[in-house]
Q: What sequence folds into this?
């Protein structure tokens, strides 16, 4: 109430945020801290010129959201709070260190479908893409922004087709830049999968995107989640175009079918990964030419192995 009554006084907001932060370690205070997110984000919006207040506000929000996620509590931020966060993003769009923190916060918030939807409604996608273009070298920013993109793109009520389509080259650039960084590559593969699900690719995109996803699998063969998301992304591409299926078979760095076999043997005890591999193969055999090639590669033998390994799945 004290902060709300003096919203335009920076010192009051700064001291209020610092005082609230003193309760972070007190578990009994957590339910009350949850109710403070709106007043914190509003303070950040009103006093955007004060970087110290922005950093302290963002740090406190990160603490609150971290605790919420640990306790399985979903944050339900309304559109006005999402708008405040977007305002802060725009005001500090060149401050790499602060943006890194802010993008982490957005990623954590976007774990909630309601919050993701509100962020999408206030139009945050172009800002995320702009941040990625500016800080392509920053692995932390790339990881967070791709994760937020994934959350926003998988929304069922998605009317941002044109905006999402513009995300493809940037997301591909992130994956290309961070192929050897498994954490970032995993996040970028998820974002590409979401874009493929939304039909955001043009005919000319299928082959290079498939090749890039195969590169990610080759560079990070033991990362189960990356392999799973990469295969699901490839399956979505193949569902849309035979070109993608042929690009997997005839990849210049080695046959994609051999890669599928290798990934199966690495992850044969992880059902979600094997399921993603099967989904990819199922999409590939929808095309006669591709199926003939897969038969010549003895993929039926692999499928029999999988059937024996998972008889009840």
A:
């Amino acid at each position: 109430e004290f902060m709300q009554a003096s919203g335009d006084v920076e010192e009051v907001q700064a001291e209020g945020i610092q005082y609230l932060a003193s309760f972070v370690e007190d578990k009994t205070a957590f339910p009350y801290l949850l109710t403070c997110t709106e007043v914190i984000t509003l303070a950040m919006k009103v006093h955007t010129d004060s970087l110290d207040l922005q950093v302290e506000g963002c740090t406190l929000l990160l603490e609150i959201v971290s605790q919420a996620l640990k306790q399985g509590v979903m944050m339900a931020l309304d559109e006005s709070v999402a708008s405040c966060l977007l305002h802060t993003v725009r005001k500090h769009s060149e401050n790499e260190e602060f943006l890194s923190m802010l993008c982490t916060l957005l990623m954590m918030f976007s774990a909630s479908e309601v919050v993701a939807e509100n962020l999408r409604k206030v139009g945050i996608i172009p800002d995320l893409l702009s941040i990625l273009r500016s800080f392509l070298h920053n692995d932390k920013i790339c990881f967070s922004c791709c994760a937020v993109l994934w959350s926003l793109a998988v929304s069922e009520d998605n009317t941002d087709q044109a905006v999402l389509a513009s995300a493809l080259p940037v997301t591909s650039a992130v994956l290309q830049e961070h192929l050897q960084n498994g954490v970032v590559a995993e996040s970028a593969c998820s974002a590409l999968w979401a874009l493929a699900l939304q039909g955001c690719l043009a005919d000319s995109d299928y082959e290079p995107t498939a090749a890039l996803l195969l590169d990610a699998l080759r560079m990070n063969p033991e990362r189960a989640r990356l392999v799973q998301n990469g295969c699901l992304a490839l399956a979505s591409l193949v569902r849309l175009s035979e070109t993608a299926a042929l690009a997997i078979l005839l990849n210049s760095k080695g046959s994609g079918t051999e890669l599928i076999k290798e990934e199966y043997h690495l992850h044969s005890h992880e059902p979600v990964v094997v399921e993603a591999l099967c989904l990819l193969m199922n999409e590939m055999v929808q095309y006669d030419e591709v199926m003939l090639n897969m038969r010549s590669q003895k993929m039926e033998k692999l499928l029999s192995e999988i059937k024996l390994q998972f008889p009840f799945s």
